[in-house]
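Throughout our pipeline, every protein is held as a single compact record rather than as scattered files. Nothing more is needed to write down the fold, since each code stands for a local backbone conformation. For reference, a complete record is included directly beneath this paragraph.
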Amino acid sequence: MPENFYLDNPDIRFHLQNVGLDKIVGMREEDYSEQERFPEAPEDFEDALDTYDKVLEIVGEITGDLIAPRAEDVDLDGATLENGKVTYAPGTQKNLENLTQAELMGVTLPRQYGGLNMPTTTYSMMNEMVSRADGSLQNLFGLQDIGETVYRFGDESQRERYLPRFASGESDGAMVLTEPEAGSDLQAVQLKARYDEETDTWYLNGMKRFITNGCARLLLVLARSEEGTKDGRGLSMFICESGPKLVVRRIENKLGIHGSPTCELQFNDVPAELIGLRRRGLTRYVMSLMNGARVAISAQALGIAEAAYREALKYAKEREQFEKAIIQFPAVYEMLVRSKTKIMAARALLYFTTKEVDLRDCYEDINRDADRVSAETRKLEKYHTRIAAVLTPLAKAYCTEIGNQVTYDTIQIHGGTGFMKDFPAERLARDVRITNIYEGTTQLQYVAAIGGIIRRVLDPIMDEFAALPYEGMLRRLVNTVNEAREKLLKAVQMVEEKRDSEYHDLMAGRLCEMQTIVLNSYLLLRDALKDKQREALVRRYVLDFMPILNAFYEVVISDDYSMIDEHEQVMEL
């Protein structure tokens, strides 16, 4: 039976309509003057929202009717390497054709380069639906951030040459960062960029490993451009094209996401162009790329979790034991409710995060325009940059961790059949497992977020949510959340006062999870004001997660340095 992954998920539409995109769309459309050059541009915000709704419905139809039915074959066939050429699974090739024909390969790029000029928030909703259909396909569709990076940091000549190719689907992209000896420690990158004055060209030499879609036509490459340097200040960003001097040595034999080739690459004097300024490759451009990658992988994990939850729900309704469907057993029903609660909390966090990313990007665009920049827009860019820098790692950590939890519970609900390849449950668990590892492990997300939490960057947002006009049960719940926030503040102050780096790092994960629980609670409370049916959801979330927050709080305020010694003692056993 035909399915539409947008129409059957009203929660996505709820966030499209309620996340608050009006200011963002107005800035992206330059106060709706875009229509003077592009007839397809919206007349006003309502027109834009209607367009987004229609495009998401198209994506929902493609993902539900076409992509999802191919997912099992894509997983079985995988990508292959023969004579140095990578070939996608037949199903993946058809999936990319469908998305290209629907003109969905340049979602966030400006219209003058062939893009749709849509916000990151809308694009993330597409990524969620694509991932629900086939988690591996998101690793190809979700690499549109490569084009975004060229747009933001390349020169106009590079934009005109490369961006239309991305938008038309003529060229795909890869983010080429990791090396065999430099995993998450990108400051240790050694691939060399050599400049030849005679040809006015850069040449790349070295190895890269674990490169998602490393067989792409266009590659953004982090390389060491400054001879004799050893840290991030000697790295620059380059763009190059695939060719005979760029060799795909192997594709990895992976646990999951088989439709997405993960490649080992060898660069043999590959000609390349510098993107932006020298020495800014890691400190500026990769950091921007990573923000985009964090929300893309968050959407990937969320989409897979949604697929897993639905598989569990379907199975629980159909499977009978002791003469009744297993969904009637409280233990099973509670697992399903817990999964649904986590997914909806993750969706609220993700789309609030993408809204902040959109605001940061819009003010950054304005501030590059001498006719529009002002002291106020510079101030707002800095503000939303700080917010996004905290939210993107928190969202990535939460969405990917709950993705793993939900798929685990889905297998548990299936019982022994969940361990078999007869059902999608085991594939979903294999596909989601990488999400809390690549683009920065959960532990590294905590490292990225903890500074902003210590500085209380999110306080203005929480102040705003706490002051909303709650009544009845919501008023009682917000009082509970406010008390939890006070505990978070006390825990943060205690860790900050220690000024002990090892203790700080030991408590970082606990503080990040406490912050996430408080913020998610406020987000769900805010949403319940707009939709009364969500009151049960926020109550369930608060009841489930406040005991977890309290446990973290007790550990932090225990002021117990013996934990460090105990860890060492346990390791010696």
